[in-house]
Amino acid sequence: MLREVAVENYTHIPQALAAGADRIELNDNLAVGGTTVSKGVMAESAKYVHEHGRSLVTMIRPRGGNFVYNDTELKMMEADLFEAQALGVDGVTFGALTTDGLIDEDAMTSLIAASAGMSVVFHMAFDAIPEDEQPAAIDWLAAHHVDRILTHGGPLTTPIETTLPHLQMLIAHAADQITILPGGGITSQNAAAIADKLGVKELHGTKLIQF
């Protein structure tokens, strides 16, 4: 089981790796769902994680709130992607939507292009896409070389045990096209049962391991 642990800033990375994290998702401001860290934090985090033989995914998100971005915000995100690339970050996670809750294909195409050389994750903006549009979103993301979709399978206010049936549907649709990475409410106590129920080999969470 690959355990991706979401951390805020650099502070908890040493403890998370020592406790067995396989991959780190680096954020600032986890209280709003994560935003982009500073260049300095990103640089030191990448250095430490790589020295310890693990991989680093960094959040690319200029602010909290919704995932509908204007041109200025998209320029900020592209600049942060180029910094992540220059610092040797392994993967980046972002998502851009239209006002009607669909993938912003123009924005995503530009952001994916700016991510060359890094793995790309579409984050929990996916859960804001209407459920009947999610299969098409999976197909689009897979066709545009996105590696993973991080999803809770529903609103974060809903316990993950309740969203498991929808996650199973998403996983079945994704098949071998793209990896569905379940997250949100997964802890060290329920991780094994959830992985077994869903048949997945990767999980994401802030409390996935105890440290």
TrEMBL record:
<comment type="similarity">
    <text>Belongs to the CutC family.</text>
</comment>
<dbReference type="InterPro" id="IPR036822">
    <property type="entry name" value="CutC-like_dom_sf"/>
</dbReference>
<dbReference type="Pfam" id="PF03932">
    <property type="entry name" value="CutC"/>
</dbReference>
<dbReference type="GO" id="GO:0005737">
    <property type="term" value="C:cytoplasm"/>
</dbReference>
<dbReference type="GO" id="GO:0005507">
    <property type="term" value="F:copper ion binding"/>
</dbReference>
<keyword id="KW-0963">Cytoplasm</keyword>
<protein>
    <recommendedName>
        <fullName>PF03932 family protein CutC</fullName>
    </recommendedName>
</protein>
<dbReference type="InterPro" id="IPR005627">
    <property type="entry name" value="CutC-like"/>
</dbReference>
